[in-house]
Design brief:
Helices cover 23% and strands 28% of the residues. It is α/β, with parallel strands linked by helices and 245 residues long. The longest helix is centred in the middle third of the chain and has 14 residues, at 134-147. The radius of gyration is 19 Å and the shape is globular. The model has no long low-confidence stretch (mean pLDDT 93). Its cofactor is a divalent metal cation.
Length: 245
């Protein structure tokens, strides 16, 4: 397969290079397009009123590019401008930090994968806790990729999270619904040395204790697989209310 590899941690992420090498070693054609710096939690923003600067990277035979834009920009450039042959699959990650529950709306990793869906491509997003061993995360991903039938198993995209455990201690793989979470806390008001007022985000996610959600299953030691789509329509929200003007 021709795989477009993107992320939000940036082109210099060790996990990105490790995954690129692993995909190439598994016989896939790989193209890498990643932000030129960390762009975590930027959501699904795209660049419209500024140029996107692209730099070629030396990745020992893997075409790799840094991009001044967002993760979603990287997906667009990779699909529309920086590949000469069709892309069969977009892989976003591996992200240093989980992408679960309500955090998905903030995630640049998930946004980069969903941008592929909007362009008609199938995608996988890969994340793990910051303390996870990147080699284990890549090993898990390559094992699962080898078992996936893209036509049957991936309607749009899958969001995968790997626990921070040795490979032999991972309990298995579970399909998991997205859990819920709410960022709690607030902002700390501070003063810069020059006297300017600023605020520092002090919030953190509080997650519900939903049994067998992506969050709870990952905590118990399972790899979680959650199917996602780019549609925000609530099919149950059409109440039938009649409006008049």
């Amino acid at each position: 397969m021709h795989i477009l590899l993107v992320n939000d941690d940036g082109i210099h992420s060790p996990g990105l290079r490790l995954l690129g090498q692993g995909l190439q070693g598994a016989g896939h054609q790989v193209t890498v397009v990643a932000p030129d710096r960390e762009r975590s939690a930027v959501g699904h923003g795209i660049t419209l009123r500024e140029p996107l600067f692209v730099g070629e990277q030396d990745w020992a035979g893997i075409p790799a590019y840094s991009c001044s834009g967002t993760p979603a920009d990287c997906t667009q450039l990779g699909l529309l401008a920086l590949t000469d042959t069709p892309v069969d699959l977009v892989v976003s990650g591996p992200n240093r930090g989980v992408n679960l529950a309500g955090d998905l709306q903030y995630s640049g990793t998930v946004a980069a994968a969903l941008e592929a869906v909007k362009k008609g491509n199938k995608a996988l997003a890969l994340s793990a806790p910051k303390e996870a061993d990147p080699a284990v995360v890549v090993r898990v991903f390559l094992t699962l990729l080898g078992q996936l039938d893209l036509a049957r198993d991936v309607r749009h995209m899958l969001n995968l999270n790997v626990p921070a455990l040795p490979y032999e201690q991972i309990l298995g793989v579970k399909w998991a619904p997205q859990g819920s979470s709410l960022w709690m806390g607030g902002y700390e008001e501070r003063r810069a040395p020059d006297g300017r007022r600023y605020f520092w985000c002090a919030a953190g996610p509080a997650r519900s204790e939903q049994e067998d959600s992506d969050f709870s299953l990952l905590e118990r030691g399972y790899v979680t697989v959650t199917p996602l789509t780019d549609s925000l329509t609530d099919p149950a929200g059409f109440s039938g209310k009649t409006f008049t003007l």
